[in-house]
Structures are given as structure tokens and as C-alpha cells.
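re the bet — no i am not wrong, look at it urself. input seq straight from the record:
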Amino acid sequence: MQKASEKEFPFFAQTRRGRSQMTGLPEISERLLAVAQCVDCTVTADVGTDHGYVPIYLCLTGKTTHAFGSDVRKGPLQKARENVEKYQLSDRITLRLGSGLAPYAPGEVPSVVMAGMGGMLMMRLMEESPAVVDALEEMVLSPQQDIPELRRFVHEKGFCIAEEKMLKEGGKYYHILHCKRGKERYEREMEYLFGKCLLDMREPLLKEFLLAEEKRLKTVLRRLTAGKSEKAQARAEEVNREMAYIKEALQCL
């Protein structure tokens, strides 16, 4: 995935070069920058905002007219409040203490961002606030685990995955799902496993990841086939199925 252009995000360019006059704000990561790029709505809520960097960048770059940030922890939320005040954005960023989508009323925010948490946690938080989810127009999700399950979940909730990005940061692979209201179902299991958007665009990072995963699974399979237990044999069958899906996906890339 390409980096954000300086033309689209001039403030980011200044910050990343160390030329910003607004000193003291840590450099935003490539992952959070990619998350910010996906937001289309002019009002959005960053769930699990931590120090408030995403809402701050969205407002500074004009991507949003108003942003919300919420966190279940008082410490990070206080730090976010200090950052918001530093940039004189208190009139454009509203911060709230609470878990998941609970701090928001149905229809109050058309867009939510969730990043830096597991997919299962994202699903649980959305299940706890169904009325808020039903009123959303878009979701920008960057799960750390359980990505295939999350793809199925957003389809079940009446969203399509309009765009999916993949990037590598600090030696780890990250996915960003840009979900918009609409009906969608994938026809093949591997599309839920690895991402239809990524397969269709022949994402080079996906190929890199799958080749590495294939190599890892081959090593696992060699150890399992040396075992005699029923548990080892059952796991070997699972690994063979996983490798079959990887082989099918690599043929598309």
C-alpha cells in the first residue's frame, strides 16, 4: 500500500518532516494515517481513542468538521483532552469516557473508527450497542486478530467492505476494512479468509504474507506427521485445509 500523499495531507507531510510549527505531537504511525485516509463522513467517532491522535489529525486536515473520541480508561482520555486543548480543538472534538459505542446515542455519529483491538472485541462492542450500529453509514476497522470472522460479521450487520487495505509496520501485517452500508456476501471461503478486495487488486503484501504463512505451515505439518496421536493427525488435517486455501489464493495473486 502506498503512503499518503503530501498533497492530500499537507499537515502530515509537515509533521513527518519535523517542520510543523505545532510541536509536541508524536508522529502519527503509517497505520493510523491509513485509517484516517479511509474516513469519508464529516462527523466520526474514534472508539478507543487513546491519546486522541486520530480525531486531532482528522480535524487538522479538514477530513471532519467534528470528531468524537472515547476510551474506557481515564488516563489516556485525560491525555487526549490535553492534546485537544493544545491544538485548540475543544470546539471540534468531543471526548467521552465509556466502553465501545455505549457513549453514543443512536444516530449521533454516522461513522466510527476502531483500531488497535481484536476483531472479537470489536464484534462484542458492536453487539452491545445495536441501535448505534444500525444508524451508522460507515465503519473503519483495523483489527489485530480474527479478521475473517470480522469480515463475516460486518456482512451480517448490513455493511459491505468497500475497500480493504493491507500494510506492514514494525514487522507486522495490518488490515484496514472500510465498511459502508450495503448488502454483500462473498462466494468463496478464501475471500473471507484473506479478503476479496485484496485478492481482486492482487495486493503484493498479501502474497508476501501468504508465502510466509505457507512456509510456516509446512514446518508445522512436518512435525505433526511425525506424531502418532489422534490429536496430531486431526491438527495435520486442519493444516492441510489451511494450505489448500492458501494455494488457491496464491493462484489469484
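see?? The domain at 10-185 is CATH 3.40.50.150 (Rossmann fold). told u. also The first strand starts at residue 43 and ends at 47. so pay up
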